[in-house]
Write a structure and sequence with these properties.
alpha/beta; FAD/NAD(P)-binding domain; TIM Barrel; seven-stranded mixed beta sheet; 24 helices
């Protein structure tokens, strides 16, 4: 069998030696366009948990790599004149050139044929082969030749970076954030060579506009080095920066719909990239090699197509997880200017938890001293009192005041439709559902989406607030919550718009047809999706009637005793559908530009603000993005402008969700996946925000709050599974400052008792 690797980077070389080790009779060849000693970059870095896979795959290679490692466990962050160290992480690094030399020696010892300075312009250039590895990197010619099969996507990012080295002997993974007259520059640096001639990687990154202002678009390598040495002189301690093909680059996020075609397989950067702030490019490449080798052993009897299919199945999910974390980290650094006003401790915690792979509790296990400092800083900033025993509680237990309403903590029960009302009137189910979550300790409990007209319901089971019987039914629930808990309770007012007139989820969850249906309204006569009836485009009279119904709903909410109202301007319901250009095709003053699309939602907000008591707050839920920027959908930048306008009109909190205006949206779901949208609005507008979406529990809540990403955290599914989430968190953290209902005091944490 003849196996050919086009590309002599870590993926191709590592697979070649792994395969030849197991199959010495197979012909394995590696073709590399560069010289053996010519490689881009300086050092490569791994985390400790990565190394176990390498030891099992080939102990001899692992031992040589391990012998040459520089190891460290700290991360230093230089920000606003302070250096803050985080410990307990565990990294190791070595020169990239040395890693490749180790692979070269091992390959030659095993009988792998290595050919350097060999350009492979097409697949045909290598001749007949049973298996071809397209391991030729970011600009893979093989991926390009067969892009109809691989269907690659390249997303070129907004920052520029240059990969330098330095003789400075670093002790830790080092981040530096340095401003000058041109803007913010950030350094990602780490040691990779110890001893008499220490070397470190020194990656300089900046936003594209800073890059232009500094004139670096016209700089050659020596001018780049001179500029960066001058900029970072206080940190270099007299040491020099070194250049090695250190031109300024844009990072591309590469993903492919398929990784294999016939007998060709993509590996490493040819198949997927991960931003260097995660440090996982070489790791991914080597793990690709391990997975392909394992797939060959298990599936070779079924033929090469079966081997490659197994390889892709085994790697796809793990790579996707790393790419998502890397993308989140990449976007954090693209937007790092947002955080320049943060306190160094808050900034450092934000940086440490940016990719969502490290959370509050995870970081506390690694570095309890740093998290204690962050917790104490948060407590000082938000007047969070220590317990009588002197214990500073986690951020989730901080109070928050919005106008005349004070919340006991930062946990919110998100609105969740129950579809169990009768003619809009809520009953026992809603009492038990909402009251149990209030008893469970949440600071704020929201009703489900509550509609201001009968025609504005999603289903016949949706809750309403359009007559006095509704007011009385809701008052029963509000009174119970106020009498038996410290929770505040809010009503989310809404109109379903063109998404009205559907069956309940357990009855099919589809548009009603025939006599069971009722007419829907929308900004324009465009159906929500295929198979949906077209709504009636709203007239001015319709708009007046619905606006007044929202105001009447707010007055009824006040009569029922609610503490806060929220306007639903998200998820494709009526007000949201005005905001998105994908659902609003009006040609009058309520369509077209963002200013026009926002006009009617602001009219409704103003009417509700006028009807709602001045001492009580109003929140607005928004869809930050349609996840369809390239198709003309609502964007985060537009939503920031929407939030700014709402704040100017008297909004107190922006509740930040996403999508819902069209079934074509493809959100990238994951842990805390919508939090970056909330964070952007908070930092750009300066208004309190409520984060929602994939927040899985108390650990995530503390992570978000301590990093300054949001002021409140709304949880839906976690509260369905555990109504007592906040009380359970008090027990978990041993926090004695949360008052339990008298009936539940048997499990309340007590001083010195530890976890119950």
């Amino acid at each position: 069998m003849r196996i050919v690797s086009i590309g002599g980077g870590p993926a191709g070389l590592y697979f070649a030696l792994l395969h030849k080790r197991r199959h010495p009779d197979h012909q394995v060849e590696v073709f590399e366009r560069n010289r053996p000693d010519d490689t881009f970059g300086w050092g490569v870095v791994f985390s400790d948990e990565t190394l176990g896979n390498f030891e099992e795959a080939d102990p001899e290679t692992y031992r040589e790599i391990r012998f040459n490692f520089a190891t460290w466990g700290d991360i230093d962050t230089h920000f606003r004149g302070q250096k803050i160290r985080s410990s307990g992480h565990g990294f190791c690094g070595l020169p990239r050139k040395q890693l490749l030399e180790i692979f070269h020696r091992r390959c030659r010892a095993l009988g792998v044929e290595l050919s350097f300075e060999k350009e492979i312009p097409t697949l045909e250039s290598v001749g007949p082969a049973d298996l071809v590895l397209a391991a030729d990197g970011l600009n893979s010619v093989i991926r390009k030749q067969f892009e109809h099969a691989f269907r690659p996507s390249l997303d070129w990012r907004h920052c520029r970076f240059t990969w330098l080295g330095t003789t400075l002997p670093l002790e830790a993974f080092t981040f530096i954030f340095q401003e000058n007259e041109h803007g913010l520059f950030q350094v990602h640096a780490y040691p990779f060579q110890r001893g008499a001639e220490p070397l470190s990687t020194w990656i300089v990154e900046c936003h594209a506009d800073t890059f232009q202002r500094a004139g670096l678009d016209r700089a050659d390598e020596s001018q780049t080095v001179e500029y960066c040495e001058r900029l970072f002189a206080p940190f270099l301690q007299g040491h020099r920066l070194l250049s090695n093909r250190s031109i300024w680059r844009q990072f591309p996020t590469v993903s492919c719909e398929r990784w294999h075609h016939e007998n060709i397989v993509l590996m490493g950067d040819a198949a997927h990239t991960a931003h260097f702030s995660i440090g996982s490019g070489t790791k991914l490449a080597m793990e690709d090699a391990i997975a392909l080798s394992a797939a060959f052993e298990s599936k070779s009897s079924e033929g090469i197509p079966a081997v490659l299919a197994q390889y892709e199945r085994s790697r796809r999910v793990d790579v996707l997880k790393v790419q998502r974390a890397a993308q989140t980290s990449l976007e954090w650094f693209e937007n790092s200017r947002r955080y320049l006003k943060q306190h160094p401790l808050e900034f450092t915690f934000n940086l440490m938890t940016r990719s969502k792979r490290i959370t509050y509790e995870n970081l506390e296990k690694r570095d309890p001293k740093l998290v204690a400092r962050v917790r104490e800083h948060f407590a000082d900033k938000h007047a969070l009192s220590a317990t009588p025993e002197g214990v500073v509680p986690p951020p989730m237990f901080a109070k928050l005041r919005l106008r005349g309403m004070e919340l006991a903590n930062r946990v919110v029960v998100s609105p969740m439709c129950m579809y169990s009302a009768e003619d809009g009137r809520v009953g026992d189910w809603h009492l038990v559902h909402l009251a149990s979550r209030a008893l469970g300790g949440a600071g704020l409990v929201f009703t489900e989406m509550t509609d201001v007209t009968p025609e504005g319901r999603i289903t016949r089971g949706c809750a309403g607030m359009w007559n006095d019987t509704h007011t009385a039914a809701w008052k029963r629930i509000v009174d119970f919550v106020h009498a038996h808990s410290r929770a505040r309770i809010g009503m989310q007012l809404a109109h379903a718009g063109r998404k009205a007139s559907c069956s309940r989820p357990w009855e099919g969850d589809r548009p009603l047809l025939g006599p069971d249906a009722w007419p829907a309204l929308g900004p324009s006569a465009d159906p929500f999706g295929p198979g949906w009836p077209a709504p009636r485009a709203m007239t001015r009279a319709d708009m007046d009637e619905v606006r007044d119904s929202f105001a009447a709903g707010a007055r009824r909410a006040e009569a029922a005793g609610f503490d806060i109202v929220e306007l639903h301007m998200a998820h494709g319901y009526l007000l949201s559908s005005f905001l998105s250009p994908l659902s609003n095709s009006r040609r009058d003053e309520y369509g077209g530009s963002l200013e026009n699309r926002l006009r009617y939602p602001l009219e409704v907000f103003d009417a509700v603000r006028a009807a709602w008591p001045a001492h009580k707050p109003i929140s607005v839920r928004v869809s930050a993005t349609d996840w369809l920027d390239l198709e003309g959908g609502q964007t985060l930048d537009e939503t920031i402008l929407v939030a700014r306008a709402l704040a100017e009109h008297g909004c107190d909190v922006i509740d930040v969700s996403s999508a819902g205006n069209t079934p074509r949206s493809k959100p990238q779901y994951g842990r805390m996946y919508q939090v970056p949208f909330a964070e952007a609005i908070r930092t750009e507008v300066g208004i309190p925000v409520m984060a929602v979406g994939g927040i899985q529990g108390a650990d995530h809540v503390n992570t978000i709050l301590a990093a300054g990403r949001a002021d409140l955290c709304a949880l839906a599914r976690p509260h369905l599974a555990d109504p007592y989430l906040t009380l359970r968190a008090a027990i978990h953290y041993g926090h004695t400052g949360v008052p339990f209902p008298p009936q539940y005091q048997a499990v309340q944490p007590r001083p010195g008792a530890g976890e119950a």
